[in-house]
């Protein structure tokens, strides 16, 4: 008995030591400096045209480069398609570091993207090389053009030429001769060819701005004229003796947009022919354009300035004649979807619409006269994963019952029958799929709020696992060792509706005591925060919970949740008003329901739109929220860009009350609690101007607050040494000093 007791004591001591060790490792330094959870991701992966095999990048320890390898999906047989040894420009030199790659249609040649540079959000500029697998030759594109200046290189359909953009002009290069032809020459200053201005990139996800014709004889491209658009100036005060001004066109709500049009030019050079769509090009948008397969025609989507009407045009690329085949209208706004696939020998195309109150896929005839539903039901299609015409199904993710999770479904292309769930029920969380062209296999990525991404190869529709590529078991074990409380998903009935929310409790939580609560908020129509997905496991929220706080998050009405059109679009014209009321109502209901929350210690914080929501909540409900941190917030909605703000609010001239009531700066005089503002001075998205204008208003009303500016950091505030750690240390310090932590 004494021996058993001794063994038990030793085991308990060892367990306590492990727990204490794990707890001591869960620090901000380890999270933001030492990458405490080393998550591994498999890919990028490209399904090959045969639908039976895929290519992937793999590290070659011998060359310190990366090989492009092929795997047979059924057998797992591995073969090297492009060895990193083959990617050496000269003998004895290091192999080119592959950032991304793209195959020609016959898989003979591969485009290698390397030496990349960031353009606003992403690394879209760099150098391109072409490797020919047959001749084992490697050639660099764009000789004579500036280093790392090429963008969006694409093979011609025949694979014998490559087109790309450099310094706002479009070029074509012949691979056999190296001859480079400039298809445009007027790019520069206010003219942008083959790519886009800031607002198209940010709000329409437009970057690659040209398309090859199916026969390879023409290139269609976007041209933007930014003349007349307001110029915003950022100032760099930290990198030289004198400040440097950084100008860029940025249209603020209600101001002049760029004039955007589509042109077609011969791939061998010549004059551009323009598609002369009706309407003022500065008061219309062209967010999507592409060639119709096996044709000489373009499909162009044109939206009006209010973005409540989307006209689909078919234009002849030779004559420039065009017709309107489909018009989508909404009382609020129309969303842009990238779900168009041509079917039935190109006589029909797929189209996403909310015309029946939910987001569903339709089949539309080429002339637009026939529109038939493919998916149906009182749920939203979240994302199309694959349209398998041969098999007769469309595969898509949806969340019919649990809006914070995502599963794979399929429906028949003929519209018959009911939606069929493919994802097994035990995989509760977010499920994403990269489906093969034959729809027989898929790269499956599963995660949830406590499970890092597991990547597998599965068969469809049976969803049987063929191979696990990466299970992240080590990261999962490390995460579990911290002893954190699992994120709890709850529902909050505020009377008018029921909202989804989550809550994190401290590891030593005692329901008999009272804890302060910090609400994390976003609240705008761009995205949702109440999702059962990994998201870096929300280590910051978990860390703050371990300091003695309940951390909670609520999705108000108007957030991008798959709950139908009315849910998402009820916010139209009143961004910052309805959402703020929902957040406050939810906070009150949560405190009423969960008696372990201390109503005298209520905090709130958010980033970007969440920063704006934080300010609105602090100013409009000053007796409810005691402390808040607003990061990169929009203080006045008129300061944000045309496309985003007008999409959800209309024009400032037509909705003056909505813009005024929804802008935090309007209510700044009401501040009572503790407020910290955090902003990067190099924020090209939400300008530092927005912070300074709010500061001016708070000073005017004699309101005290705290401020932390990060010189030349962007909207994400992560650039330069030690920034992420310093930001979180600053926030932690403010919470601990102004919202007393711990149970009472």
Outline the structure in words:
- The chain has 744 residues and is of the alpha+beta class.
- Among the domains are: 183-227 and 256-329, no CATH class; 482-738, Rossmann fold (3-Layer(aba) Sandwich), CATH 3.40.50.
- The protein has an eight-stranded mixed β-sheet with strand order 36-37-39-38-40-41-42-43, sandwiched between helices. Strands 13, 14, 15, 18 and 19 form a five-stranded antiparallel β-sheet that branches.
- Helix 7 packs across helix 8 (609-620).
- The longest helix has 24 residues, at 2-25.
List keywords for this structure.
single chain, 744 residues, alpha+beta, Rossmann fold, 43 strands, 17% helix, globular
Query: What portion of residues is helical?
Result: 10-25%
Number of strands: 43
Structural class: alpha+beta
**Beta-strand level of the residues, as a percent range?**
35-45%
- Strand sequence of the main sheet, in spatial order? 36-37-39-38-40-41-42-43
At CATH's second level, what is the architecture of the domain at 482-738? 3-Layer(aba) Sandwich
What name goes with the CATH superfamily of the domain at 482-738? Alpha/Beta hydrolase fold, catalytic domain
What is the fold's blueprint, element by element?
Blueprint: H1 2-25, H2 28-32, E1 45-47, E2 53-60, E3 65-72, E4 78-82, E5 100-103, E6 109-119, E7 122-132, E8 137-140, E9 150-155, E10 161-166, E11 169-174, E12 180-182, E13 191-193, H3 198-204, E14 210-212, E15 218-225, E16 231-236, E17 244-249, E18 259-266, E19 273-275, E20 284-291, E21 297-304, E22 309-316, E23 322-329, E24 342-343, E25 348-353, E26 360-365, E27 371-373, E28 381-388, E29 393-398, E30 407-412, E31 420-421, E32 430-435, E33 441-448, E34 451-459, E35 465-470, H4 473-481, E36 488-493, E37 498-504, E38 515-520, H5 539-546, E39 550-554, H6 565-569, H7 578-593, E40 597-607, H8 609-620, E41 627-631, H9 642-649, H10 656-662, E42 674-680, H11 688-700, E43 706-710, H12 723-738
Parallel strand pairs: 38-39, 38-40, 40-41, 41-42, 42-43
Antiparallel strand pairs: 1-2, 2-3, 3-4, 5-6, 6-7, 7-8, 9-10, 10-11, 11-12, 13-15, 14-15, 15-18, 16-17, 18-19, 20-21, 21-22, 22-23, 24-25, 25-26, 26-27, 28-29, 29-30, 30-31, 32-33, 33-34, 34-35, 36-37, 37-39
């Amino acid at each position: 008995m004494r021996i058993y007791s001794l063994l038990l004591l030793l085991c308990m001591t060892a367990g306590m030591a492990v727990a204490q060790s794990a707890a001591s490792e869960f620090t901000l330094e380890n999270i933001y400096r030492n990458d405490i959870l080393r998550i591994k991701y498999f890919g990028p992966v490209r399904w090959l045209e045969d639908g039976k095999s895929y290519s992937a990048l793999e590290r070659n320890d011998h060359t310190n480069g990366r090989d492009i390898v092929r795997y047979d999906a059924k057998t797992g047989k591995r073969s090297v398609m492009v060895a990193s040894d083959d990617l050496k420009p000269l003998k004895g030199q290091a192999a080119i570091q592959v950032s991304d790659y793209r195959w020609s249609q016959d898989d003979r040649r591969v485009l290698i993207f390397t030496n990349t540079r960031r353009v606003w959000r992403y690394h879209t500029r760099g150098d391109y090389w072409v490797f020919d697998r047959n001749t084992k030759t490697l050639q660099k594109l764009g000789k004579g053009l500036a280093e790392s200046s090429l963008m969006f290189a694409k093979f011609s359909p025949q694979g014998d030429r490559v087109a790309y953009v450099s310094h706002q002009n479009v070029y074509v290069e012949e691979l056999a001769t190296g001859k480079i032809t400039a298809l445009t020459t007027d790019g520069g200053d206010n003219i942008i060819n083959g790519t886009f201005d800031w607002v198209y990139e940010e709000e329409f996800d437009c970057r690659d701005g040209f398309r090859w014709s199916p026969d390879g004889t023409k290139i269609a491209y976007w041209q933007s004229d930014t003349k007349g658009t307001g110029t915003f100036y950022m100032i760099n005060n930290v990198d030289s003796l004198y400040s440097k001004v950084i100008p860029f066109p940025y249209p603020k709500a209600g101001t002049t947009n760029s004039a955007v049009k589509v042109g077609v030019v011969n791939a061998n050079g010549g004059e551009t022919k323009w598609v002369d769509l009706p309407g003022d090009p500065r008061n219309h948008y062209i967010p999507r354009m592409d060639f119709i397969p096996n044709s000489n025609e373009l499909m162009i989507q044109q939206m009006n300035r209010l973005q409540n009407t989307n006209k689909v045009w078919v234009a002849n690329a030779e004559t420039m004649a065009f017709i309107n085949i489909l018009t989508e209208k909404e009382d609020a706004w129309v969303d842009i979807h990238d779900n168009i696939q041509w079917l039935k020998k190109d006589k029909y195309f797929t189209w996403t619409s909310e015309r029946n109150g939910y987001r569903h896929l339709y089949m539309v005839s080429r002339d637009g006269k026939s529109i038939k539903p493919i998916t149906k039901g009182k749920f939203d299609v979240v994302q199309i994963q694959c349209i398998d015409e041969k098999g007769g199904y469309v595969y898509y993710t949806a969340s019919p019952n649990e809006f914070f999770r995502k599963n794979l479904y399929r429906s028949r292309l003929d519209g018959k029958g009911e939606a069929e769930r493919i994802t097994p029920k035990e995989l509760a969380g977010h499920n994403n799929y990269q489906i093969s062209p034959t729809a027989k296999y898929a790269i499956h990525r599963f995660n949830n709020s406590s499970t890092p991404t597991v990547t597998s190869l599965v068969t469809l529709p049976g969803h049987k696992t063929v191979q696990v590529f990466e299970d992240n078991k080590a990261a999962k074990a490390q995460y579990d060792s911290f002893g954190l409380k699992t994120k709890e998903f709850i529902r909050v009935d505020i009377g008018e509706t029921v909202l989804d929310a989550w809550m994190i409790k401290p590891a030593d939580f005692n329901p008999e005591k009272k804890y302060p609560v910090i609400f994390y908020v976003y609240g705008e129509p761009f995205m949702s925060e109440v999702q059962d997905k990994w998201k870096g496991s929300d280590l910051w929220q978990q860390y703050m919970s371990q300091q003695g706080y309940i951390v909670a998050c609520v999705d108000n009405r108007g957030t991008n949740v798959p709950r139908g059109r009315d849910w998402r679009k009820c916010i139209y014209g009143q961004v910052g008003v309805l959402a703020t009321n929902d957040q406050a109502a939810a906070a009150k209901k949560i405190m009423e329901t969960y008696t372990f929350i201390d109503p005298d210690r209520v905090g709130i914080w958010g980033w970007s739109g969440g920063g704006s929501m934080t300010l609105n909540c602090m100013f409009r409900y000053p007796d409810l929220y005691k402390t808040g941190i607003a990061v990169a917030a929009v203080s006045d909605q008129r300061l944000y860009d045309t496309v985003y703000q007008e999409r959800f609010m209309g024009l400032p001239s037509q909705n003056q009350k909505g813009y005024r009531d929804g802008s935090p700066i309007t209510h700044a005089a009401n501040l009572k609690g503790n407020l910290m503002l955090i902003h990067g001075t190099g924020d090209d998205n939400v300008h530092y101007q927005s912070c300074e204008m709010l500061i001016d208003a708070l000073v005017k009303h004699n309101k005290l607050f705290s401020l932390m500016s990060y010189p030349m950091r962007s909207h994400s505030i992560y650039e330069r040494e030690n920034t992420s750690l310093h930001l979180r240390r600053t926030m932690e310090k403010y919470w601990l000093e102004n919202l007393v932590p711990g149970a009472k």
